[in-house]
Design goal:
Length: 698
């Protein structure tokens, strides 16, 4: 018999709708029920694609003995962390404080007023039953002690949240001279590169040891740092990591797209879930790497990743689903990675003996295996002969399609779709693929039409039905960022206008006293504390997302007000990011742009920009070289078209009837340029004292 979760829109909650546990969604009625019954709350937080969430569901929450103990002594609340990141942030802070680490599934015991007194992650059935018995006994016999402990924990978390540990920087206008705070920030960004290099795995790529997560935001920063300074080391970290990730098992060698992380240091065996935010962020990185280097490998991975988004994650409404599961259900049992792994015999069965043996050698499929039960994850450390691979790949894909497939979490998250809009707009613009820009525009139309309810963004929807959860800071920042990039790719000013509207709602709604941003709006449900995180984790945090969106919008629209708000936010977020750059890539990428301007390049020519993107169509032959020169610099914001057709092109005439480029850094603009070599020299000029193109450390 279904429980209360049967009415949910979250796929994660629906996975538990048939549990014998009498689950509640997080709501006022659930908290009131705990107070009415005078029992603790068991809070369980996870997400649909989470492997260990599935394990705990099958081992624990589908068990009648567990359900009986839970239903008798507790009010059980289930939360999708992707739908309610605010609740997840509050109780993850408690989990980390109490246990020293976090993760999902997250399990917390709360008093009826929501204060935690116990926290853990995955708990097997025997330990879970013991926990419930001990907690029920403590609640019955030592209530005052439990409540006192919960009060202390809550007070400590509030105190921790209210302390500003990072002194603000002062990111001045870089055009004001080289002796002030801007020069100090340049030095600090150089030092941040040193710190990143000190924890970089120079043998295998990436940062640290196993497990290895794709450091997409750090790579985005390093590309901009290289572009500004010319340092070879920053580019080497990008190239080494991007190559290793895309040649290993973390990348789907048949269908494209990246898994969540590698369980080993060599990028061989992934945790098989595929997340929208990872793939959107990585698509942007590979496009920027291609821009900076012209690498055919970068272009191939970017195109395959974009195609994966359109093929596997696009919803019927034109938006993008959240994830593909790590697990495949076979015979009623969840098996991780079963869709993706192969044995030599399976390759031979599909391809024949000769091609099967060649494929096994190429894709490192061995008799011993690299995964469980003698199976192997496909890798592609060397490139095959193209015509042979063009024949083999579709046959393997067709055979794989006949296997049981992982479930898809098809809820649409505003923030992650904003990142996808930006990535696809850039991919369409710089890879000459109009269909990517069209997909970005369709997604943007859906999110704006469906997720904006009475002027307030919502966090999620599913099958076109919008959820009740209010959008958080990252939703506003990432969506506005995507709309600015879509404006640059299409020339359509309506996208820029919508970005402004979203940012102008976000500024009073999320802004903190120090210029940073809370994660939740001032109109949000009041929780134990108002969450705020100025460090990036798997995706941009609210402060860095809004800072970067404000910066790029301000530069493209010529708005000093938005530029000032961006720099105030970066003053707050960059301190921690500069000290620990692997957790601050999005802020550092914005800082690289801020300290250098940001740099905008406006190229006017006789033909208007079409909706197909920068390099896809709409560029007359005589303007091509100027556009291509500007496109090689990932830190630049590039617009081109007929004079006056976009805000960046206003009051920018042709010079002598020729296509003309205008380079601006912040509020200071250079002379009109018609010679591509002069444009290259202008973009190579440094915002600090380093000679153009020089490496300041080599």
């Amino acid at each position: 018999m279904a429980n209360r979760l049967a009415e949910a829109t979250s796929p994660y909650l629906l996975q538990h709708a048939e549990n014998p546990v009498d689950w509640w969604p997080w709501c006022d009625d659930a908290l009131a029920e705990a107070k009415r019954r005078d029992v603790p709350i068991l809070l369980s937080v996870g997400y649909a694609a989470c492997h260990w969430c599935h394990v705990m569901a099958h081992e624990v929450f589908e068990d009648d003995e567990v359900a009986d103990a839970l239903n008798r002594g507790f009010v059980a609340i289930k939360v999708d962390r992707e739908e309610r990141p605010d609740i997840d942030a509050v109780y993850m802070a408690a989990t980390v404080a109490l246990t020293g680490r976090g993760g999902w599934p997250m399990t917390c015991l709360l008093t009826p007023d929501g204060q935690p007194f116990f926290a853990a992650t995955y708990i097997p059935k025997p330990q879970f039953l013991h926990l419930l018995a001990s907690a029920a006994e403590a609640w019955s016999d030592r209530r005052a002690e439990v409540e006192e402990s919960a009060d202390r924990i809550a007070e400590a978390l509030r105190a921790q949240a209210s302390v500003q540990t990072t002194p603000p920087l002062a990111i001045d206008d870089p055009n004001a001279g080289t002796a002030g705070p801007a020069a100090e920030l340049v030095s600090m960004l150089d030092s941040a590169e040193e710190r990143a290099a000190s924890v970089f795995d120079w043998e295998r790529g990436g940062f640290g040891t196993a497990p290895k997560f794709p450091p997409s935001m750090v790579l985005a920063w390093l590309l901009r740092h290289h572009d500004r300074t010319g340092t070879r080391r920053a580019l080497q970290m990008v190239e080494s990591t991007c190559e290793a990730m895309a040649r290993g098992g973390m990348y789907d060698q048949l269908a494209g797209g990246f898994a969540r992380y590698s369980t080993d240091a060599d990028w061989v065996v992934p945790h098989f879930e595929k997340m929208l935010y990872d793939n959107a962020l990585l698509l942007s990185v590979y496009v920027d790497w291609f821009r900076a280097s012209g690498s055919p490998f970068a272009r191939r991975i970017a195109r395959e990743t974009a195609d994966f988004l359109l093929t596997d994650l696009r919803t019927a409404q034109g938006a993008f689903a959240s994830a593909l599961d790590a697990d495949t259900v076979i015979g009623g049992r969840s098996v991780e990675g079963a869709t993706y792994v192969w044995t030599p015999d399976e390759l031979a069965e599909v391809l024949g003996e000769e091609d099967g043996a060649t494929a096994a050698l190429l894709l490192e499929v061995t008799a011993a295996g690299t995964f469980e039960h003698g199976s192997s994850v496909l890798q592609r450390r060397v490139d095959p002969e193209e015509s042979w691979w063009a024949s083999v790949r579709p046959r393997l894909l067709a055979a794989r399609a006949k296997r049981p497939q992982p479930a898809r979490d098809d809820k649409v998250v505003t923030a992650w779709n904003g990142l996808a809009i930006a990535a696809l707009a850039d991919a369409g613009a710089f890879l000459a693929e109009p269909s990517y820009v069209a997909a970005a525009a369709r997604c943007a139309h859906f999110v704006l039409e469906e997720h904006l309810v009475d002027g307030r963004l919502r966090r999620t929807s599913r099958d076109g039905i919008v959820g009740d959860a209010l959008a958080v800071a990252e939703d506003h920042g990432d969506l506005a960022f995507g709309l600015v990039r879509l404006h640059l790719a299409t020339g359509d000013t309506s996208w820029l206008e919508m970005a402004e509207a979203i940012l102008d709602v976000a500024l009073p709604l999320f802004r903190a006293e120090d210029g940073g941003f809370y994660d939740t709006g001032s109109d949000a449900e009041e929780l134990m504390l108002r969450p705020r995180n100025d460090a990036d984790t798997a995706e941009p945090c609210g402060t860095s997302a809004l800072a970067r969106a404000l910066l790029e919008f301000g530069a493209v629209a010529g708005s000093a007000r938005h530029l000032a708000a961006a720099k105030e936010a970066l003053d707050v977020s960059c301190g921690a990011a500069l000290r620990t750059p692997v957790f601050g890539g999005w802020s550092l990428a914005a800082a690289e742009c801020a300290v250098d301007g940001p740099v905008t390049v406006a190229i006017v020519h006789a033909e208007s920009l079409t909706d197909a993107g920068h390099l896809a169509r709409g560029v007359p032959a005589e303007a091509n070289t100027l556009v291509e020169v500007a496109a090689r610099h990932p830190r630049t914001l590039l617009a081109h078209g007929a004079p006056g057709s976009m805000p960046l092109l206003a009051d920018r005439p042709l010079r002598d009837g020729l296509p003309t480029a205008y380079v601006c850094r912040g509020t200071v603009c250079g002379p009109p340029l018609t010679d591509p070599s002069a444009l290259e020299a202008a973009l190579d000029a440094q915002a600090d004292d380093h000679p153009a193109g020089a490496d300041p450390r080599r």
